[in-house]
Structure formats: C-alpha cells, structure tokens
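Listing 4. Sequential folding, example run.
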Amino acid sequence: MQSSCKRTGAGLRTLIAAAAVLGATQMNTAEAMESAGTSLYPGTQTPQQQNDFLLRGDGAVHVWQVRQGGPTAASVYVLVGAGANITVHIGTNGMLLVNSGKEAMSDQVLAALKSITTAPLRTIVATDASPEVTGGNIKLGATGKSVTGGDVTNLIGASSGITAILATEAVMDRMSARGSRDATPDGAWPSSTYTNSTKDLWFNGESIRLYHPPAAHTDGDSMVYFRYSDVVSVGDTYSSARYPSFDLERGGSFQGVINALNHLIYDVMIPGPQNDGGTVVIPNYGRVGGYSDVVFYQEMLIIIRDRIQHLIDQKKSLQQVLAANPTLEFDPRFGATTGNWTTTDFVTAAYKSLSKKAPTRGRKGSTP
C-alpha cells in the first residue's frame, strides 16, 4: 500500500514523528535522526515505547493517505494524533469524518483537513461517546453543512446549516443525559441516530454501511465500512497499540469485543494474497492494519478469554487470576504498566465480564 505523509506542523521533529506514527523506516540521514532525538532503526524502541507514542501522539496532527481516489472515486485519509484516529472520506459530495478527535486538537484538525481538501464537511460519524471521539463535534461541525431535501431547511431547529452528526441512540442518550459522565453541550449531540444492527448511507458515489456491535467496547459502538474503498473504521474493537478497552459501566463486555472481531473477519473483511492487502482496518488507536492483524488479535483474545474462564471455573479470585498472568506472552506487544488502560485494568475487566456469564465456545469463539 502506497502512502503519503504531509507535514501539518513546522520543523524536522514533526516530520520524523509523523514517520514514526505511520511505520516508515527511511529518513534522509542518520545525523538528522540523531539531532531530532528520535531513532527509527529496528530494535531501538520497545513495543511499549512505540505503543505509548501511538496512544499519546506528539502534540501534532499528521495526515496519512489510505486510498487514492479519482474523478468519480473517493479518497480516504487518516488523521493521527488528535485523540482517536479520524478517518476522512473525500469525494464529489464533500467530506465525511469518522470521529472528530479531542476538543483541544480541533484547530489542528481543521488545519490538517484544509491541507488536503477544500470540500465541505457534510457528516461526522461518532464511533462512541468518549471525548477523544466526539470532542471536536462542535468546532468542526460549525464549519460544514449537512445535505437536506425538500423544505426541511425551513423548519425551526433544523440543522441544515451545520454538519450532520451520526451515532447510535445509546451515544445520544449518554451525551444528552444530565449528570452523565459523557454529558456535553447540545451542539455536540448527534443530529441523527440509529438503533438497528446496521445503517446504510450513500455518499461520494459509495455505499457506506454502519455496524452496531452490541456490548463490545460499549453498548453504543459503531464500525464504519466504506464498501467500494474497502476500508473499515472499527472504533475501539481493535487496536495495534493495546489490549481492547471495554467499559463495563457503559455496557461493554469482553465477549462482545470478540464477537465484533468475529463479525469483521467472517462477514466484512476480505483478505488479499497471503492475507496481506485487502480490506484496510483503521482503529481508534494505533496503526492502520489489515486482515491478518485482526485475525491475530482475535485469536489472542480467545486464548486469553479461555485461560481466564478456566480459572473462573476453578473458583479462583481476581488476585489469583492476576497472579497467574494469563496474558504473559502477549504483554511485550500489547501490555502496559502505565496509562489509563494497563494490563491489570484489562485482566480485571475481563475477569469481571466473564464472571457474569461463561461464554459458549465454538469455532469462532463466540456466544450463540
């Protein structure tokens, strides 16, 4: 897959940081890397150091091209470093975003968007209700304009003058509920919601399908599949930088994450030769991936789930499960001892989730 990285900040440090985010391995000179304090030679950074960078960024927003469009085909980009990764879909009808990033990064996001297109912003799809996903809704939304038909624009309270915001009904409920930890000003709320397992859009000459996996990261997740571009934004159900984050208080579950990955693998994604290429996967956090990345992640989680479930069946306590280290061989790649989602946090949440109801194991590792 060809890539193009565009500088959205000043200075060599920003360029090198962007290259690190995108997995690039070549720079002009070794001296330049030494002077910038960043080395891209293989083996110079541990996986956890790389993951920390992918999760926290460098304070700048970087642009990564995923698909090159044409006269009638849309182009797809990813903005990295604004909080949750932002997918950008650009074509003849305008621009659609998946996520809007953190509120504090909105100015940088707008500058990055202007660097790649002058198309109007029509729609923002929120993969969940977290502030790193929806924080830019108000500022970014005010710059665009939704598309409406008939005399809808004459109705009081119509949102035709701003960008449409689309999410599941559960996201709307949380963002609009007084006293909710996800409560936001009404300008950030979704202007359109859905409750079914799927919702279909037609935009930029392309069919776009939204999938609502029940009880995965939360009970209000959306995954967005651009069918012609063959790109899917998967929210927090997959990450190249950490174990999956699922929020039990918001209706998430360990098994629900596995079920969502099963759906991606068996019903959505199509692999290329030797499982390389094919459908492109954009997580909320981490590098852009493909079919084999998601399969590895799914199989890892099934192994960890079965280990923890076996210990639960033996009446082991949470402390005994943590001491057994059920994630041992995967920790160097996905584990963390600091931050807001450590390995201990993941195992604890998995234990609590699986203790509620033991899953029925099958070929796909999913419940019936």
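-- end of first protein; second protein begins --
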Amino acid sequence: MYIAMVASECAPMAKVGGLADVVHGLSRELLRRNQAVEVILPMYDCMRYERIFGLEKCYADLWVPYYDQWIRCDVFRGVADDIPCIFIKPLSKDNFFDRGIFYGHQDDAARFAFFSRAAMEFMYKSGRRPDIIHCHDWQTGLLPVLLYEIYQSLGMGNSRVCYTLHNVHHQGVTGPQILRQSGLGTHLMTPEKLRDNTHVGAVNLMKAGIVYSNFVTTVSPRYAEEIRYTALGHGLQSTLDTHAGKFGGVLNGVDYGTWNPEVDGHIPYRYGVDDFSGKFRNKAALRQRLLLQDKFKPIVAVVSRLDQQKGVQLISHSVFHALANRAQFVLLGSGAEKAINDHFWGLKHSLNDNPDCHLEIGYDEELSHLYYAGADMLVIPSAFEPCGLTQIIAMKYGTVPVVRATGGLADTVFDANYGDKPHEERTGFTFKDFNEAGLESALGRAIGLWYRFPRYFHQLRLNGMRQDYSWNQSGGHYMNIFNHIRA
C-alpha cells in the first residue's frame, strides 16, 4: 500500500525530539515491509541538508489557499536514510519555515495549518492517492479534517487516516480564524468537532485530528490509559472516551540499525551480549572525552531535553546524589527555556573542577551514542513520559535505566528488586513518587547494586540488551491498524 507520512519532524534532517525518531523509524520499517512510503515535511531553512541526497524540485507553482489569497509553493524531493521525502517550501513574505528554528513562534498554529493544507493540496494536484495518510501530533491535526471536509469529494475518498498522539501536553489550541485561513467552515466549531473542551471560543487542532481520523494511536499502552482516565489528558479525556472504539496505544520502537552497539559507527568499540569487553573500553573513552578521572566508580548519565516534562529539578538533584554516593555523573542536553538553561550552565560552572562530573549543555546526536555506550546507568525522572526512547536505547547498550514509573517508562523498565517479572526480564530501577526521595530510592539502589552485587548488576545489563523493542514489533501493529481501517 502507499502510505503518506505527514509530520513536522523526521530524523535525521529535521529533529527536535522523539517525534522525529518515530517518523524515521516507522517509515524505515514500513519500507522494509515492501510498502510504498513518502514522508511529507515542511522545508525548513534549518534542516540538516547534508543528510538529504538527490534533493531536487519535483513540483513548481503549487498554489495553496490562505484566507482570501493563494500562496505559491515549490515542492522538492530527496532521500534521507533511504526514506523518500517530500519538502514543501512556501514562497511567501510570511516566511513560514525560514526562521532558523522549528517551533517557538506565536503563529505556530497558522504555520502548521498552512502546511497541512499545502500537503493535501500537493497530494491532490500531483495525483497522489495514499491508501493511508499517517499524521502526527497537533501540527497535522487539521489534515484529516481537510481530507473529509474538502478533498474527499474531489476524488480522494479512498484515503484513510491514522493519527498518532505523541504528547498531549501540547494540543495546538488557537483561535477560530484558523478555520477561515484553511478554507473550512464555522459549522465545525461545535463540542462534537473542533471546539476546545476548555476554552469555548478556541479551536483545538489535536482534538480535530482525534475526531476526524479513522484510527487514533498513542505511543505506549500506559500513556493511552493515562491520557484517557487522568489529568494527563489535559482536557481531552471526554473526547478520547467518545472515540475509544478507534483508540489504542502502540509502543514506539527503536531503529536497531542506528542504535545498536554491535554496528554503531559513532562509538570507538563495538560490543554485544556475547562479547561485552567493548562496553568497558567505551567507558574509558567517555572518561577521556569528558576529562573524568579514571577511578573504580559507576558513571550515571542523563541524555535529555531539559524541560519540566523531563523532571529538571530531579535531574539537577541526581547530579549531587550520584556524586555523594561515589558515582560519576555526566549530562548531555539543553532546553528551550532560558531559565532552565541558565540553571544548568550555573551547575556546569560550579562543578567545572570536579573530576567526577561533566555537564555538556547542548545537543550532539553523535556524542549521545558514546554516552549510551560508556555509562553504567541512565536517569530518566520524567513528570510524564508518553513513551520515551532513551531508556530503550540505554538497555540495548547495556546501560541500566533508572526511571520514574509513568507512561512508556513503566511499560518498558521492570524493577530489579520489586518487579513482578521473572528475574531474567528485570531490566532497571523504577520509582513512583515524583520527588527527591523517590529518585534517591531508585538511584541509590542502582549504585549500591553496582558496588555490592556486580554479578546481578551485569545480569540486568544483559537482560536489557536481550529485549526486543525494534520497529519490527510496532510495525506489525501499525500494519494491522492500516489494514483494519482500509477494510
């Protein structure tokens, strides 16, 4: 079948967070299953163009409605990591995607509503008739509305939409002018359709996608329960309940072609379950790279965005708890909020002379591979976590995750001491309470086990490496969903 994957991000050329990795990994898995896949993206000026091959214009003069005028776009195609990609470039004074960053402008809702309309217009005018249009998060939530309100009657009636919620905390709540901008009618401003459940005069783009798509997924079974039944639904609980018959959680996968210490070209020493010695040589390489002293100590790592969702206050506390308990600590990450970045820069300066600590403020995709390969533990103290990929990556690299039991973290990490899984399936350390005491209980147990029971700690490493969270599993679930909604 032909699947059009429409999103605001896709690794490696346009990545802010896990959404990009999911679009990349799922697309590659579907291609491996001999499906025809194209990823449709905005053409940002800040993309990593060196990762796109054969970039060329494939459609000129795509005119897209915008309020009472038309905006001309050029459309390009190229290949990134063997994934065919389509890039839409508006030629407008608004410079929708020529701003040096992916998100963070006051008109983000207008920018991505325009992209959704442009994607539909391109598919329609270029003669593309996808069997499945797979949309992601609020940025493309308007697309299924456009399909069924406008393009279905123009000959696209056989296309079906799967819509994936990656983070319900961000819903694209905006003013009703977005309907006029996109060529949609005000009759959609009802509680059953696009009107926000909390702000009566507002449109909710994520709700639009839920209501109008043929099937709705989110990125882990636990998160599906949390957003339907708890405050983590942020007002969408009743909408998800109404559409429960077409809603389910599918755990994200990881591309083991990219994240696998047996084949990873970004680490100096490759290793696996049967030959683990490279893990320890990578630990030495990480220490050398970050100028840490070579001592008999575990390395505790954080590889993360630095924002409130990720539990920045607990990340900060984990630095000092690790150092106080005879561990080394390394961090790789940055945040969009100046106050949070400033806080971690302050920590970096105050700990600059500590031979057991290094904070790298910024993000370096290639360096993150060495963090995973060289660390003994990875801390993920999230306030909420729809799925999380870092804990899955860490396990593949024999790095034991220490996580808060929420969302996908609870679906993938099983406690070494208190889990209800057989010992061969226990993979890390978990804590429930989102506070310093909760973090200390799990991180303290992890460090203590490393020192006192190294054989069991090593068994946890191997247990994690043997888990299969590849896209092969998740890809099968998505193929079942696609076939279901086509039928």
